[in-house]
């Protein structure tokens, strides 16, 4: 009946991904009372469990922005249509949403909301790791992990998967790289950075850097070796670049549909696709891999987390943002990442009474930025970037997209979110940085445009060559929050006379347009932002999902730029000057892409982001490198981080029992959001009655 009324017992301690059985292991037994019966009028049987009856529901329903017609679990496909696969693969690990600390297989949760057990143990694929700095990491996997078909989800499967990944990335004949991973044993995986031998670069990393990369709570899970092993053999046999390309062409076009997952048993995790009847056009039904199913022959092997829950089915509902809203309004989603707030995406006006907010927290690494492509000639201009930032009401952009209750404007412009800025830098340093306007300052915007060499013809700004000034802003239709922010940007720029084209795109189109290997087919986009550590922000990493200060190169060792790299993949010069005075913003008129400052300090950003990760640096030296990155961002505004947000989850309090809001059961996530951690960990619990407290 909704939120558990018991004391939390747990205290307070990452996409919105995301029941109890009759197993004797989780069914409490009454305390023995001896061989004599107690008199009828005594309370001797008060410790006996009360009959619970039947659960209110046998299915937990979630939503995923995809379609069964295009779903593809092949992570190498040219378009990313894997959304939903997170519910069909084991939890890698879980991460605390407050402290960002990781937890691994065997993590215990007290469960006062579950009437038939006091606690549960959650299995994750990773069971731990060891770091042998500056090169080696050893990760252990739980030996109970299996694919749906019963085959081991082990280190051998992982090595095969990532060896294919290595070849698919074009490394077959690359001389300055090597495959630096191996299955040390069936359940231990060893990966390492190159040490300078055999003509390879020396990629020594500090202990804390390696530890941050070990045993993560997200990323690709290994596709079954029945799929990957034939491609690995073909790559090994390929003797020419053309032969490798032919293998890659076959690989990326080899779709792994829902039907194929079913037929081959290639998924993992506690819920599996069990029949064609479960694959509908709008909904996918998965069944629990519990002991009862194993004994009946309905599943090959029971999953350890299946004993934690009394919910035998998981329904993934497909669609776009509009369908998600409709389902939410109809009470057809049982667990969803977000908060319930006035004027928000979900509010008391849009949700039925039995759909209520379950938990809320300030995301320490959850925010958004306006991502800018410097290959656009307007956005190469320092003064234009500043003008566009000044023109937009960023407080309104956050509120219009995420709602007042969810959006928290950024105060410190360091490229990090405020949680990290305030923990890494002194108050004195943060106060010395320039404060960019978070509300629209049209006068400053006009001044900056004029200083950039732009002039106004009628109501339209034009560049120094007389061309109308205009850029595109794109965002994925699957993330409804982005629409409000993008519309605010469009309205504010239109108000000052700077042209803007506004485009909502499907996920595959949008993500492809952001890829450097596809030519960066965009000018600007709303994009998520947040890392757990400062060296995540101040880094060089490749891929369209990268939010690092420097965009890395996919083909480079460790996908990071070399120290002598002059321009990154987004067109940003990396050997530049910053003002000697912290917080100064003075620059020449028509400063362009790489201004020559009168009182400048030369920095090599490519070198700095590498030095941060190298062993042997003192804390003071690392701090100074962080400060240079913050000063670079504060001056150049390569992108604009505008807010972080409150996050949480809402769900069905009529048909399910949930932890109290402050309970540790709500504290862990896989990737982004707690839904998958709760469902795949078996923390969800169907109610045995349908009473609930009405919302306030």
Structure description:
GO terms for molecular function: peptide transmembrane transporter activity. Residues 24-37 have a biased composition (Low complexity). The chain has 18 helices and 29 strands. By secondary structure, it is of the alpha+beta class. Strands 14, 15, 16, 19, 20, 21 and 26 form a seven-stranded mixed sheet that branches. A four-stranded mixed sheet has the order 2-13-12-11. A four-stranded antiparallel sheet has the order 7-8-10-9, with helices on one face. Helix 8 runs antiparallel to helix 12. It folds into two domains: 2-29 and 51-334 and 655-686, Dipeptide-binding Protein, Domain 1 (Dipeptide-binding Protein, domain 1), CATH 3.90.76.10; 364-644, Dipeptide-binding Protein, Domain 3 (Dipeptide-binding Protein, domain 3, Roll).
Strand content: 15-25%
Q: What number is the mean pLDDT?
A: 91
Main sheet overview: 7 strands, mixed
CATH homologous superfamily assignment of the largest domain: Dipeptide-binding Protein, Domain 1
The percent range for helix content is 10-25%
- What distance separates the N and C termini? 16 Å
What is the strand tally? 29
Q: What's the topology here?
A:
Elements: E1 2-3, E2 59-64, E3 94-96, E4 102-103, E5 107-110, E6 119-122, E7 126-132, E8 136-141, H1 155-168, E9 181-185, E10 188-192, H2 207-213, H3 225-237, H4 241-252, H5 258-264, E11 271-272, E12 283-288, H6 291-296, E13 313-318, H7 321-329, E14 335-337, E15 355-372, H8 382-391, H9 394-402, E16 407-409, H10 418-424, H11 427-432, H12 442-451, E17 455-457, E18 460-462, E19 470-476, H13 480-496, E20 499-505, H14 507-513, E21 524-529, H15 534-537, E22 540-541, E23 550-551, E24 575-579, E25 600-604, H16 605-611, H17 619-636, E26 640-652, E27 656-658, E28 668-669, H18 675-680, E29 685-686
Parallel strand pairs: 1-27, 2-13, 19-20, 19-21, 22-23
Antiparallel strand pairs: 3-4, 3-28, 5-6, 7-8, 8-10, 9-10, 11-12, 12-13, 14-26, 15-21, 15-26, 16-26, 17-18, 24-25, 27-29
Helix pairs in contact: 1-3, 8-12, 9-13, 16-17
């Amino acid at each position: 009946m909704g939120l558990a009324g018991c004391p939390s017992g747990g205290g307070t301690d990452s996409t919105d991904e995301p029941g109890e059985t009759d197993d004797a292991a989780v069914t409490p037994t009454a305390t023995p009372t001896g061989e004599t019966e107690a008199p009828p009028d005594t309370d001797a049987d008060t410790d006996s469990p009360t009959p619970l009856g039947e659960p209110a529901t046998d299915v937990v329903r979630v939503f995923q922005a995809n379609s069964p017609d295009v779903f593809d679990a092949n992570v190498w496909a040219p378009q990313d249509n894997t959304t939903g696969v997170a519910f069909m693969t084991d939890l890698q690990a879980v991460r605390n949403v407050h402290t960002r600390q990781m937890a691994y297989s065997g993590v215990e949760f007290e469960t006062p909301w579950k009437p038939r057990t006091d606690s549960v143990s959650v299995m994750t694929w990773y069971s731990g790791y060891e770091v042998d700095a500056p090169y080696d990491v050893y990760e252990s996997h739980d030996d109970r992990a299996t694919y749906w078909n019963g085959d081991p989800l082990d280190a051998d499967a992982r090595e095969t998967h990532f060896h294919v990944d290595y070849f698919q990335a074009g490394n077959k004949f690359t001389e300055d790289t090597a495959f630096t991973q191996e299955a040390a044993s069936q359940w231990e995986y060893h990966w390492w950075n190159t040490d300078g031998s055999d003509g390879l670069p020396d990629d020594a990393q500090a202990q804390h850097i390696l530890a941050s990369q070990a045993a993560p709570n997200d990323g690709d899970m290994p596709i079954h070796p029945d799929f990957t092993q034939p491609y690995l053999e073909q790559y090994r046999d390929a003797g020419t670049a053309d032969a490798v390309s032919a293998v890659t062409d076959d690989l990326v076009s080899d779709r792994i549909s829902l039907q194929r997952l079913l037929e081959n048993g290639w998924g993992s995790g506690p819920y599996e696709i069990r029949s064609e009847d479960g694959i509908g056009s709008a909904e996918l039904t998965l069944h629990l891999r519990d002991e009862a199913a194993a004994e009946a022959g309905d599943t090959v092997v029971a999953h350890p987390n299946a004993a934690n829950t009394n919910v035998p089915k998981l329904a993934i509902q497909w669609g776009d943002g509009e369908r998600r809203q409709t389902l939410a309004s109809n009470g057809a989603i049982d667990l969803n990442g977000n908060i319930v707030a006035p004027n928000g995406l979900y509010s008391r006006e849009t949700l039925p009474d039995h759909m209520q907010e379950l938990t809320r927290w300030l995301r320490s690494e959850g925010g958004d930025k306006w991502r800018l492509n410097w290959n656009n000639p307007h956005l190469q201009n320092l003064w234009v970037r500043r003008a566009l930032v000044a023109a937009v009401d960023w407080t309104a952009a956050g509120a219009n997209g995420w709602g007042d209750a969810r959006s928290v404007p950024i105060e410190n412009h360091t490229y990090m979110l405020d949680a990290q800025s305030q923990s890494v830098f002194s108050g004195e340093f943060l106060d010395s940085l320039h404060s960019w306007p978070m509300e629209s300052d049209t006068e400053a915007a006009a001044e900056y445009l004029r200083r950039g060499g732009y002039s106004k013809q009628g109501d339209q700004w034009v560049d120094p060559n007389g061309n109308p000034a205009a850029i595109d802003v794109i965002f994925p239709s699957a993330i409804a929050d982005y629409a409000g922010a993008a519309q605010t940007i469009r309205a504010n720029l239109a108000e000052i006379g700077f042209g803007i084209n506004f485009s909502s795109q499907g996920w595959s189109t949008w993500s492809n347009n952001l890829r450097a290997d596809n030519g960066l087919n965009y000018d600007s986009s709303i994009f998520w932002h947040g890392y757990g550590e400062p060296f995540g922000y101040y880094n060089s990493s490749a891929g369209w999902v990268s939010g690092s200060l420097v965009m890395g190169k996919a083909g480079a060792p460790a996908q990071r730029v070399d120290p002598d790299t002059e321009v990154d993949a987004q067109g940003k010069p990396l050997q530049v000057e910053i003002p000697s005075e912290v917080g100064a913003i003075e620059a020449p008129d028509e400063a362009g892409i790489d201004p020559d400052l009168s009182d400048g300090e030369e920095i090599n950003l490519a070198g700095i982001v590498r030095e941060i990760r190298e062993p042997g640096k003192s804390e003071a030296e690392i701090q100074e490198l962080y400060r240079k990155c913050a000063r670079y961002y504060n001056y150049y505004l390569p992108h604009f981080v505008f807010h972080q947000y409150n996050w949480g989850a809402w769900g069905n309090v009529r048909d399910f029992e949930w932890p109290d809001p402050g309970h540790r059961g709500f504290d862990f996530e896989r990737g982004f959001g707690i839904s998958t951690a709760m469902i795949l960990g078996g923390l969800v619990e169907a109610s045995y009655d349908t009473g609930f407290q009405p919302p306030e």
